[in-house]
Amino acid sequence: MAKENREDSYLGNRLLKPTNVPQQFTKEEVEEYVKCRDDIIYFLKNYVQVIHVDKGLVPFDLYDYQQELINTLDEHRYVIVKSARQSGKSVTSLGYILHYVLFNKTKIVGMLANKASTSRELLGRLQTAYQHLPKFLQQGIVEWNKGNLELENGSKIIASSTSSSAIRGYSFSLLFLDEFAFVQRTIADAFIKSVYPTISSGKDTKIIMVSTPNGFNLFYKFWNDAVEGNNQFKTFKIHWTSIPERDQDWREKIISDIGEEAFRQEYEADFLGSSNTLISYEKLQELSYSSPLWSREDLDIYEEPEMGRTYTITVDTARGQGLDYSTFTVFDSTEIPYKIAAKYRNNTVAPLLFPNIINNVGKKYNDAYVLVESNDIGAQVADVLHHDLEYENLLTTSWFGRHGQQISSGHRKDISLGVRTTKQVKKLGCSNLKSLIEEDKLIIVDYDIISELTTFVTNGDTFAAEDGSNDDLVTTLVLFGWLVDQQYFKELSNLNIREKLYQNKMDSIEDMTIPFGIIDDGLDDEYELMPDGAVWQKVDTFNK
């Protein structure tokens, strides 16, 4: 082995190799280096040490499934790993990353987790393995701290939280997303929209996404899309039975500690929603999303408008400050089952611009009936729709004593634009929404809506999004649930009544146009319209 000297250390750490230090390699070391470079399993088994919870620093003795995972990571650019808790998924991925930066030049790795502290802890585990490598396998250290590792071969690792701002400006060769299912939804959304397209567009960029399931979130969507062949990811599942020391006795003990449902999610790696949801667990399991016909500027279209069909839009407005979302959902309310035709979701749109979007979509969908939640900033949106844009089918409400708010015509003095979401409105809306979904009277195919439903849970005597989740789209569904109970809506949804209303409208138009000289000569055979504009009456001369 090569002889070390006092200068053969990085900042006094004799376990680390500094830069620009010549090193003489023995023939055996060269052979071992080549073996390790060409065979990652050999490298991990023979030279990498990891920290065991009970035993401390131990050789990395890979299980069969870990070797299979390593080979999968090596053979595919995009890999998504759904794993039981404490299965060694992260340490296996770290082993792959260690080999990747050691034996490849100028590779930049982003190591991301739901918290910056977690990603730094992961980097710390990799650094522990690194500094226990023999010097002939090491690269010289350029930078070594809690958030960065840079090697003499130009490769580096950056540890950060999973956010677009934290890693903006880097051109990554490999992106490692640890426990992606636990990244807050708004942060994950922003990351996927701003960073992921750039990363995935690279010709050689690799992405490793690993997590234990945690509800129906973006990790669930990536996994499900991969299973269905709708993205480029290769799936890899780690079940608790893959781990040798776990048996049925172990299973029973864990279930007795955490319960059957938690065990299914934590160790069976099943996707489960939150407990105490408005919609039953069984029904949520049945819901499945599909891809929209097209998406543009935060609008997802599932059904194009059809002549003669009735559409309803319910609206929830936010302040456009990057927190809550301004949303609306377009329902085909022609008949039961109702269907979601389109949805809009954006957390930066200004309230003054939002009415224009609603107006344009509403007109496209046969002048859809629009119900705006008028709480807070929503009242401004409804006002712009009515007074500035003169949207005709904006629904209004009035107060009817103990019956509370009801959809009303424009003839009452106490009329209000939209509806205020009171406790009474929300209670009725939630109750009706539950029935609509569980009785298959409302068909939902949108991923974002389904995701929000899985975290729409009991909150005192009502329902709301659990911490870290949103319920803005669900709010539009609750409004629709309230609306379907209104007599006005029932009349609009009745085909015969709709046809009558349409005929009355046409009659009214005809009455207004007749005084201006429009004559239909095909309705009465007693009259004939001449080319010069004269009207002649036919006379039966035989009766004279």
Architecture overview:
- This protein is an alpha/beta fold.
- It has three domains: 34-266, P-loop containing nucleotide triphosphate hydrolases (Rossmann fold); 284-493, Nucleotidyltransferase, domain 5 (2-Layer Sandwich); 508-543, no CATH class.
- 36% of the residues lie in helices and 20% in strands.
- An eight-stranded mixed sheet has the order 5-6-7-4-8-9-3-10, sandwiched between helices. Strands 11, 12, 13, 14, 15, 16 and 20 form a seven-stranded mixed sheet that branches. A three-stranded antiparallel sheet has the order 18-17-19.
- A hairpin with a 2-residue loop joins β21 (456-459) and β22.
- It is elongated and about 95 Å long.
- Mean pLDDT is 86; it is low at 1-5, 512-525, 527-536 and 538-544.
